[in-house]
Structures are given as C-alpha cells and as structure tokens.
Specification:
Shape: globular
Oligomer: single chain
Largest sheet: none
Distance between the termini: 25 Å
Strand content: under 5%
Radius of gyration: 17 Å
Order of helices and strands: HHHHHHHHH
Length: 219
C-alpha cells in the first residue's frame, strides 16, 4: 500500500482534532502526517542527490518542530508565551521554506520577480493585521512571510511544468494567510472551527504535494 491512504487518514484525524480544539488528540495526531511523509521520503534516499536528501530532511525536521511550536501556541493562554511560541514557530518554518526552496533551486527553478511580488502583496493583508494587533511580532513574522513568498513563487517556476509543486506552494500560502485572520478577526466559534479545519487541511495537502514531488529524483 502506498503512502496516500495512510497520509489522508492521519491528516484527517489531525484536522478534526485541531478544528474541535482537543489538545490531547491534537498532540497525538498532529505529528503523524509528517512522520508518514518522512517514511516515504526515506525510501527514495538512494535515488536522490545527497544534498537534496539533506535539504528534504531539513524541511521535514523544521516543519515537525514548527508544528509542535504552533500547537503549543494554540493551546497557551498567557499572551507573552503565545507570542514567544509564535515567533519560534515562524522561525522554524522559515527554515523549512528555505530548505524546500533550496531543492527547487538546485533543480533549475528560478522565481520570477512578478511571482514573488504577487505573493508578497497577498501576504501584506496578514502583515497589516499583525501590525495592528501584535506589532512587535512583525519583524519575525514578516521575515517568515518573505521566505514563504519565495518558496511559493519558486514552486510555480519550475523548468518543466509541475502542477503539484505549484499547487503546494499556493496552498501553503493560503493556509498561513488564514491562520492570522482566524486568530485575530474571527470571533464566532463555529466560523473559527471551520477556519482552523481549512488551515490544517490546506497545510497537510501542501506538505503532501511539495514533499512527494521533491522526493522524486530530478530528471
């Protein structure tokens, strides 16, 4: 059996746990999708370049650590601790985005200025929300946004058409854009749960599309 069904199953479980705001269930289920992806990527180690292997492992490790930081931020009530966890999570995911970008760059993808500018402009909405609500976090989150815009635009600029990479880049951006809006603009509990379900589902879909695409040897 391939990894698609196990990944879909654990991603669905993690999405439901997060949307229902069940801490214990989220702690158990949220790491599982990346563990499935890590196991999948390990099977192709010998067919890939050593540098690509290191970058892919780095992307998965940074993402897994970032997931943990964001889970702790989600279930923390103390404002300064929430801010600290969010900064840690953003820094870790910046490392993941740079690793993903590095693999794509090594395989010939070159982001176009127009693509970077478009994605940066889209992320400016969440940056504005942060500037109004949590301005002291803007330097760290703004830096992360730049790495996300770079990764997403690079994913859409492969030297040969790769829809999975392009779609993964867009979904990652859409997921992160929703996080800030959900936490600062949505007050209705039902809408917040729906938004969190979208955040997690789109994030796990993005990871699947990006990692499985980049797990394949170039050429």
């Amino acid at each position: 059996m391939g990894p698609a069904l196990p990944y879909l199953s654990v991603s669905a479980a993690a999405t439901i746990a997060g949307a229902l705001h069940r801490r214990r269930a989220a702690e158990i289920t949220k790491p599982l999708p990346l563990l499935v992806l890590a196991a999948h990527s390990l099977r192709g180690t010998r067919r890939r370049n050593g540098v690509d292997n290191a970058l892919l492992a780095g992307a998965l490790a940074f993402s897994a650590a970032g997931d943990r930081a964001m889970l702790l931020e989600e279930f923390t009530d103390e404002p300064s601790d929430k801010d600290r966890r969010l900064q840690i999570g953003a820094s870790l995911f910046a490392g993941a985005q740079l690793c993903l970008t590095g693999i794509m760059w090594r395989r010939g993808a070159r982001p176009r200025p127009a693509g970077v500018l478009l994605r940066t402009a889209i992320l400016a909405e969440s940056a504005t929300v942060m500037a109004l609500r949590r301005p002291r976090l803007l330097p760290v989150l703004g830096g992360y946004g730049n790495t996300l815009a770079l990764m997403s635009s690079t994913a859409g600029a492969s030297h040969r058409p790769q829809p999975r990479l392009r779609n993964g880049g867009w979904l990652f951006l859409a997921s992160d854009l929703t996080i800030i809006n959900r936490r600062h603009l949505i007050r209705d509990e039902r809408l917040a749960a729906m938004a969190e379900a979208w955040v997690l589902a789109s994030y796990f879909a993005a990871q699947w599309l990006l990692v499985t695409s980049l797990s394949e040897p170039d050429g």
